[in-house]
Amino acid sequence: MKIQKSLPFSLPIVLKRKYRILLALLSLSAVVLATGCGGDGKNDSSLRPQSYSKRCGLEDVPATGNQLPEPEGAFCIGKTSVHLVDSNRSETFTEKDSDFREFSLSIWFPAQASGASKRAPYMDAALLDIVAFTGNPEERFSSKVKVFTNARENAEIPSLGKFPVVLFSPGLGANSESYSGLLEDIASHGYIVVAIDHAYVSGATRLQDGNLVTSTLGEATEQAGDSSEPEDAATSIVVEDQRFVLGWLQGAGASTPAKKILAGHLDMQHITTMGHSYGGSTSVQTSRVEPLVQAAIDLDGTIYGDKMGPWLKPMMFLQSERHYSVVHDYSLQTGIPEEDLSSFDYVWNHRQQPGIRRVIPGTGHSDFGDLKFLAKAYSKTLTADEYQALGLGSIEYAEAMKQIRRLCQEFLSTLAR
What we know:
Blueprint: E1 14-15, E2 22-23, H1 52-55, E3 66-67, E4 76-90, E5 100-111, H2 125-131, H3 141-144, E6 147-148, E7 151-152, E8 163-169, H4 180-188, E9 192-198, E10 205-206, E11 212-213, H5 217-223, H6 230-250, H7 257-262, E12 266-276, H8 278-289, E13 295-299, E14 315-320, H9 321-334, H10 338-341, H11 343-349, E15 355-360, H12 371-378, H13 384-389, H14 397-413
Parallel strand pairs: 3-6, 4-7, 8-9, 8-12, 12-13, 13-14, 14-15
Antiparallel strand pairs: 1-2, 4-5, 5-9, 10-11
């Protein structure tokens, strides 16, 4: 894992494209001061709608805290987590025959409002310090920046029937909780969001024995003598991870606290797979092979694995301006058709169902998560060049989230229904 040592806030970046286009991966979430759930800007506070935090009975955030942007949906939200082991699949990223495939889930869901409630943790502090490496081994990120979520601990789902499911996978080397600004909002619109951290593929992930492991995807592929790109080689593994989690969600048992919360509330007839970067690629691939899945959302993810054959389900592609412009400009310079350069273009042109495709102006590859405001919370002195090195564009975090949230809701409420 390479660390950008010259920056006061350092995160891993990888080379992801066939034509060696440098794409910086999202590593961890940013935070932004809370914005209200509405209001007309008048001085009379009695005319302003009650904020999400007040409406949902969440504890106040201290003046020195950094609160994620408040969700815009009608529901309050809760958060829980669970660790899963697929005992039918051996772990291919380790050498022990006794190791099985493992992953951690973070789950956001519509929750009942209540009195003063404690906010759910943003992320395990030890995991946060691994992912958000500051460049100084003596300084722990979690001791300097305090992140506050909008989800409640110990929440219950309201008795309003079942809610559609969104299955999310993060980018290579990133953690699902680093997309909390987006995933909390989706849950607030009446969805159960199940996000997977894939051991040895996603960012730092805690195993069942308590150990933390990081992404070793490229190393494992090289050691196995596989000459294909690591992302291509691992696509089937991550797709099977997603399908295993869907099977777990279908199970009737309530053996874990998470299953007890979710029991009877999962609408398994309406499932959308979704992800950023490599997670977006595998989400699109899962939608093609898994009958339970109705639609897919790919957030700026080059599509790896088999791209031939029919694409029979609705999909949404959201691309960063930088990703799009690099391919477009190279096509103009060389005369090579964009479809031959971009997996987005190839799959989009061969789809057989409606879809949404947008390029979000001013965005870089990392602007689909919360990275920019986390970086700002840690350091106020980063330059435009340093942001660009982190895969970030010129757009402000609040505006990026506003556009991405809106487009996700547009797709989920229409084509994914």
